[in-house]
Write a sequence for this structure.
């Protein structure tokens, strides 16, 4: 077994790992990038990019169905599942190719393949072939979709989102477990492509929403199109014929057994830290085994070990992984003189229809940090001009600001063009703008963003009349 010595060892070559590697190299440190699996980020290979390819196909099918409402009558619609999945895979492979080309450009001596495991705070063993002695480390090992053991025992028809993008054709039916972003995006897309879909949720949550009014509207809106079973658990999953027999139980204890081609487990992801030998590092860890770390420096305790991306189970988004990786790599290079890095305003988007976006502080967070000290403004898109023109007039935007200062704090939304509106509102939060300053900005006509102005005007009115408005959190309970 050979031994390699380096200044910085980065474990994992996904988004966080690659940005961490580049940051450490930019600071002039000898850096080794270690990967146990294939190169290519989760986003490019089985995440955000292939899912948007599938959603785009679904949007095309949906527009043909909606066209008669505009007086446009297309001919018979035929969805070619093999062609849909061929485009998804081909375009996905192009995106992965770009990532792999980037890794290929790294010097060969900077890359090492194999599973890494800590033997001590300063030593790793890579597979059965190499020992790595390093002064500092970045853990960027990503995450894995969760599949309960009893579901997995039913065989290969129980899948995760990773598996969907390797299909050659669309199946007849899919049961989706989970009402988070992944479950809703894929469930709705498959439904619009002609797959029989049922979405099961143990609670009543929808994506990342916590505002009770927006959440209620999202539940009803998604249920109008999809077979949504909230507060329903899967109690038995068994192989049967060419698919699965799935038994569910609702909140009243009623059970039913149905047949599906596949069960898609979209109940969350688990950080890949359990096989890293972290017990040999001396790091303090939480009850999930994840090292405790500083969210501004990514440093684990006072050690020379930093953690970034999905591995720390904070915010499983590519943009966050990139920022965290950059901070971790930079601080690993400059250790022990670490410094806080830029953590941007929170922004999360679900590419459902209508889209869902949250920017800045959520309603639930404000009920903890600003209880009785924030106002809420809102707008419905039902009668918003441009939204009605496009026949996308459903949804709601709720915006939040701090009493006295008038500072804009955040927003939650389901509605048209939420991916763009979310960006505008996140920028306003990060710029620490007041509501009055936001209302001074230009608004064109007719655009969906005029709905933002309506919500901000409502918010400004409520800020100006603080004494007559109740605390919005008084009757609020945490989102299920």
């Amino acid at each position: 077994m050979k031994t390699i010595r380096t200044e910085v060892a980065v474990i994992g070559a996904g988004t966080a790992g690659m940005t961490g590697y580049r940051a450490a190299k930019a600071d002039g440190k000898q850096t080794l990038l270690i990967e146990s699996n294939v190169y290519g980020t989760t986003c490019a290979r089985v995440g955000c990019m292939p899912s948007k390819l599938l959603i785009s196909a679904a949007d095309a099918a949906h527009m043909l169905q909606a066209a008669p409402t505009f007086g446009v009558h297309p001919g018979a619609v035929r969805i070619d599942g093999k062609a849909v999945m061929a485009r998804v895979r081909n375009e996905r492979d192009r995106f992965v190719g770009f990532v792999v080309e980037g890794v290929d450009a790294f010097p060969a001596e900077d890359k090492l393949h194999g599973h890494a495991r800590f033997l001590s705070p300063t030593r790793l063993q890579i597979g059965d072939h190499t020992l790595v002695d390093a002064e500092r480390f970045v853990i960027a090992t990503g995450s894995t979709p969760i599949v309960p053991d009893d579901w997995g025992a039913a065989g290969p028809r129980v899948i995760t989102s990773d598996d969907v993008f390797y299909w050659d054709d669309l199946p007849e039916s899919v049961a989706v477990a989970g009402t988070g972003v992944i479950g809703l995006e894929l469930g709705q897309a498959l439904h619009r492509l002609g797959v029989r879909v049922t979405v099961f949720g143990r609670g009543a949550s929808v994506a990342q929403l916590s505002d009770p009014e927006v959440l209620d509207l999202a539940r009803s809106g998604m249920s109008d199109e999809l077979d949504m079973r909230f507060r329903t658990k899967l109690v038995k999953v068994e192989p049967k014929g060419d698919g699965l027999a799935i038994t569910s139980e609702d909140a009243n204890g009623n059970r039913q057994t149905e047949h599906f081609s596949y069960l898609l487990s979209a109940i969350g992801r688990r950080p890949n830290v359990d096989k890293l030998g972290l017990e040999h590092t001396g790091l303090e860890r939480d009850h999930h085994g994840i090292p405790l770390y500083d969210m501004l420096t990514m440093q684990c305790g006072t050690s020379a070990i930093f953690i970034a991306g999905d591995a720390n189970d904070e915010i499983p988004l590519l943009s966050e992984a990139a920022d965290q990786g950059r901070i971790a790599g930079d601080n690993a290079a400059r250790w022990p003189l670490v410094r806080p890095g830029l953590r941007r305003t929170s922004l999360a988007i679900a590419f459902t229809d209508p889209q869902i976006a949250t920017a800045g502080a959520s309603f639930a967070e404000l009920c903890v940090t600003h209880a009785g000290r924030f106002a809420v403004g809102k707008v419905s898109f039902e009668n918003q001009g441009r939204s009605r023109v496009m026949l996308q007039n459903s949804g709601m935007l709720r915006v939040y600001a701090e009493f006295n200062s008038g500072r804009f704090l955040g927003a939650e939304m389901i509605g048209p063009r939420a991916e763009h509106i979310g960006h505008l509102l996140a920028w306003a939060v990060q710029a620490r703008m007041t509501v009055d300053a936001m209302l001074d900005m230009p608004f064109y006509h007719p655009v969906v963003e005029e709905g933002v102005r309506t919500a901000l005007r409502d918010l400004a009115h409520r800020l100006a009349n603080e004494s007559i408005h109740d605390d919005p959190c008084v009757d609020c309970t945490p989102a299920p």
